[in-house]
Structure formats: C-alpha cells, structure tokens
Amino acid sequence: MSAEAIMSLISSAAQPGDTLAALDTPSLILDLDAFEDNLKTMQALAEHHGVALRPHAKAHKCADIAQRQIALGAQGICCQKVTEAAAFIAAGITDIHISNEIVGASKIGLLARLAKHAQLSVCVDHIQPLKSLSEALVAQDAQMGIFVEIDLGQQRCGVQTIEEAVKLAQATAALPNVWLKGVQAYHGGIQHERSHEARYQASQAAAQRVQEVIDAIAKVGLECPVITGAGTGTALFDVASGVYTEIQPGSYAFMDNDYGQLEWGEGATFQHSLFVLGTVMSVPTPTRAIVDVGLKSTTAESGLPRPYGLTGVTCTGLHDEHTMLDADKSVHRPPLGSLVKLVPGHCDPTFNLHDTVVVMRGDTVEALWPITARGLSR
Amino acid sequence: MSAEAIMSLISSAAQPGDTLAALDTPSLILDLDAFEDNLKTMQALAEHHGVALRPHAKAHKCADIAQRQIALGAQGICCQKVTEAAAFIAAGITDIHISNEIVGASKIGLLARLAKHAQLSVCVDHIQPLKSLSEALVAQDAQMGIFVEIDLGQQRCGVQTIEEAVKLAQATAALPNVWLKGVQAYHGGIQHERSHEARYQASQAAAQRVQEVIDAIAKVGLECPVITGAGTGTALFDVASGVYTEIQPGSYAFMDNDYGQLEWGEGATFQHSLFVLGTVMSVPTPTRAIVDVGLKSTTAESGLPRPYGLTGVTCTGLHDEHTMLDADKSVHRPPLGSLVKLVPGHCDPTFNLHDTVVVMRGDTVEALWPITARGLSR
After folding, report:
1. What architecture (CATH level 2) is domain B33-256?
2. A331: three-class secondary structure by DSSP
3. What ipTM is given for this predicted complex?
4. What is A32-260's CATH superfamily?
5. Is the pTM of this model over 0.90?
6. Nearest-CA distance from A263 to chain B in Å?
7. Is A321's CB within 8 Å of B377's CB?
8. Chain A residues lying within 8 Å of B322, measured CB to CB
9. How many angstroms separate the CA atoms of A359 and B252, rounded?
10. What is the CATH architecture of B3-29+270-370?
11. DSSP at A13
12. The pLDDT of residue B266
C-alpha cells in the first residue's frame, strides 16, 4: 500500500455539521459565540476612546480570525515574524505591523519584497538593521513605516534611553524609503500582573515614560503619528491613557487560563472561547482520569491547562501526550471515553501546535479554519 | 500577486552544502557525529545485555531518524499515538509498538486497519478498549500483540494491582485476534531524577515490582514473551535488571538540557546533538542579547534552553518569539546578527514544533529531514 493510501486512512477530526460528541481528539476548538463577544468588546472599548485596534495575530496565526477582527473595525493586524506576515499577506490581509526587530539579510530581503504587496511597518532598536532595511527597500522601490521601540522595563528589545530613541527617529527621517511612523511601547511583563490595581499603576507609569519619549522626539521637529502598544492585560487602561493611539492585544479573543486568572475589576470582561478537546483514555483509580492531550497539543510554560466545567476536578500534570486529572472524592471522575474540554494555559503557542481550529456554534461544527501561519517562525 | 507567489518569496532555511553561517533562523539542527555516537552507544549497551532496543519515536517523529536507529540494530520503534504510527508505517517502518492506551471508536478503527500493514502492538489497562480492539481486529481480519501496562508509581496510566494485571492478561488470552505479547512497565518520573544512585534504586524497586507481576501472570499459565519499558534515565540499570527484555528510550539520541543535567556516573554517556539555532536580533544593553527563538521554536516546560559554547552567558527567559540572554560582564555578549546555538530544554515537544530538521556534518548541511509525524497527536 502506498504512503498516500496509508495516510488516507486517517479521517478528519471533524466535519462541518458534526456535533461535539463526534469529534476526534485532541482537537483545538473555538466557541464562536464567546469569540465574537470578545472581539466586539475590545473593538467597542477602543472605539469608545478613539484609539485604533490592531489585534496581534501572533496569538492565533489564523487568517480567518484576522479577517473577522478587521471586518469588525480593526485597523489591520500585528505579526511578530516576517514569514508569519507573508502568510497573512498571501491570505489577503493588507495592513500589517511587525511589532518586532528584524535582523539578518534573508529576513530583511523578504520584508522589503513583501512591502510591494502590503502596507507594512516594523520596529527598530538599532541603527544597523534600519540601514540594511532602507537599502533593501531602495532596491525594491518600496516604502515602510518605522516604529522606534522603547523598553518600558520588560528587559527585552527596545532602546534604553530617550536619547537613543531620538537618534533612531532622526536616522529614520534621514534614510531613504523608510519613514517615522511612531513609537512602539509594549510592556509584556505587566500584562500578566494579577492585581487590577497593580496593572493600572504600571500602565500609568509606562504611559508617562512614553510621553517623555514623544516629547523629546517632537523637540527635534519630528512627529510620531502612531503610538502603539498594550496587551490584553492593560488595554483597558492604555486606551484611556491619552498616549496610545493604537493598541495591539491578542489573547482577549480567546482568554487562556493565565489571563483568566487576572483580577478584571469592573472593566471590559472576556470569556474563554478556546479549548483543547480531549478524551479520557485511562481511569486507573477511582479519582484519576488521564486525558489524551499532552504538550504537543497544549503548552505548559504558563501553567497547566484547566478542565472546563468540571467542578472538583483539577489538572495535576501535563506530559508529552497525557493530561493528568484528579477528581475530588465527592465528585464524579469523568468516565473512560468521555470528552473533556481544557482551557489552555497560554493560547499563542497552543494555536501554533495545531494545523486547524474546529469552529463551533454551540454544539455544532460550523467550519474548520486552517492555522495559516502555523510553524512560520522565521 | 497570488497567494502561492507570495509564499514562494520565502526561501528555504537551508540547502544541502550550506555552511552553518548561511542558515536562516530559527532552525532545528542535528549534529550527525554526536547523534550517530549516541545511537551506537545505546545499541551497544542493549546488545551487551542481550536486550532489544526499541527507540521511542515520540522523541523525534522523524522517519529518517527511525530508519537509522533500525539500521543499527533497533528492533523497531515505539509510537505514542495512532496517527503518529500511521506516518511511520507510510514511511516504511514495519514494527511499531504503541506504548500507550488507545480509546475511542475512531482511533481503534484506524489502529485495526493499520494492523494489516505493519506488525503492531499496543498497551491496555482496561477491559473495555481491549474488547473494542479485538472486535475491530476481527472485522479487519488482523492480529495485534497486547501489552498489559502496569503503573510503577508514575500515577499515569496502567493497572494498579497485580490482580488487575492478571485479569487483563487472561482477558487478552481469551479474546480473538489479540495475543498477550507481555507487560509494559515504564516509570517516566524516575527518568529525570538527577542523582545516579536515586535512579538506580528506583529502577531496582521497579524491576522487583515487574517481576512480581510476571510471576503472577505465569502462575495462571500465561507467558509474557516481552517485558518493555525504560527511558534514557534508567536504561543503563534496566538492561542489567534481568527483568526487561526490551528498552524504549528516546531522548538518548539528542540529550536535551533536562537530561543533560543528570548525574551520569561512569556508565554510558550521551552528547548534545540537537540544537535550535537563533540569531541575535537585539542588543539593547552591554550585557543583554535577545535571540529570535521563542516558545514556538523550543519549549520551556522542562526548563529554559541553554546557550551552547558561550561560557558566562545564561538564558534568563523565553517568550513567544524571544530568548533572553544575559552575559556576565567579564565576557563578550554575542554581537547583533550573530548565530547562537541553544540546547532545548525538552527534545520531544521541540521536534514537534518544526517541519524539518537541518542535518549537519560538522559545519556543513548534509540533508534536510522532514519531521514526518509533526502535529500528528490523535
């Protein structure tokens, strides 16, 4: 039997019209009602404050999701990688900010070629790649908006001082085929602060720092039309800061278990819309259930997944191909062969493990959406 | 421009004949010399003790790697999932043990169909899926070897008592188209005990428990031709236990950073052969270097990746698309644009993030091997 014939024995995990009970596992599933509510909530929040929403597509890598975000009013999307952006451009998305530094001849060459096919912008925190990009854009006869990235204390990328930010802004203004689009000011660390008050205070401090940078750039006669940043954890505060003109949250559409544990206060709230569906494959003791979902279907670096809708059942471990559940003696352990929904610990790398997300309207499969940029990390 | 034309702008990360310096990043790379040494060391260890080696292919999901393991004398391979096994059968591997419980009509149906095309065995720890499998095999006119899995204290799958093991062995002997191939006794938890002595003691205790199960099964007149188990951490002890007839280690071929931290004593030693290659994309301070490798290219649940060959440089964090490195002030921080090799924390889920592994002989790309079963988790 040929290799193709062997592989054709594998049936699809789901077909449109299937009910949840018919799905094979592990499957990544999206609850459309919750997802659509989340999209509308964030869009309304941004619009209420007159701030643009540019959702981060690194969270989902899925063109169908990006298209729905844009249809509701999003300005475009963010990507983190050049190949990821290529996949979204190929899917018809025309306005993409690469919220990251791009270094190396191969990546800069691709970025410049893609600039012929979409409205792109990118971050810089060093003169050298900025110069290389300008040269590559000249060669392609293409243009690109540049954001000077500042480090707000995350200790990742971004310039450290106001003087460096001003210098890079001036260098951008002086180089051909690049133009100063603004400042990127994103602090990933504070997104996950559990306390509402702590996130508010951190967001205020960050906004003040951003304002100092904008003022210094203005002082040398340069404008920053766009100030972009913010994630799901601080979006509520950042839209009202008067500093950001654009926010780039991603996880709000899905609400993984990590973000679900934040104190949300009385602001906008988001619902879990993303789950990994598993099957109980072993029930070796009266309280233990082993589910066929492992590290290759959901990631663990932001904590274990949480069994959804199973009061008294906790996740005690995640191995390569197993989730360990423990049921309190007072409750029923899910039976052998039953389906279990898990809320992933961290949505971004979990999406990247799957080729497809199974899209559910209530209990029925409405569509299968490909994870367009799955595995595209260059 | 068409979607295909856009995607064709992305060049391959590597071509045979390229030097390391020419690779685009992130790339998963395999050092063939170290890899081949590792394969030979484990094969010699198994042969010295007259024990079969059946490497676990969940570690790599790569048919080219499995073929090299078998060419050196491995009995066949282990898989963890039915779709994973299908991909290896399609690639021509004919002897596969599924070292896991398989539950659900769709999976059992596929397993029975695959049994027409390869010599397969599978684990059971419950009568219900055993009966379903027997029925499915009858329908396909196929046969399958059955391993009763026992829980050695890992608290995952496997029967809890000797009585249950005997009952399942008897049920297997009584059902059509399945036959008792033996006992699977694998303790994942003890593989990662840092201390050589602690792993030895745990391995001895486990072997004693396995012997009690074999004896009880023999007492009811049933034979267990194969006793399978062991991982990279205890293989050295398990081959000499007199109990195991087959070992199923996987990570030994690659030695991730977690296994690399074990005390190996004077026994067989293994070398790091697997790396994720990254580029320094930002150098915001004199001691900080940010590398373009994140959670979508290497996983973090077993600890952070380790920069290889960079004394005084430590990894301080891993985000979705960034590795944070910190250089001691006494050493040189890797410069912007330079390549950095990272030893992944955990090889199994890291392989599963990549479509291809770039195979290096010294400094030169020898081949690109597809990760055959990447993403096949059902």
Report:
1. Alpha-Beta Barrel (3.20)
2. coil
3. 0.97
4. Alanine racemase (3.20.20.10)
5. yes
6. 23
7. yes
8. 156-157
9. 39
10. Beta Barrel (2.40)
11. S
12. 74
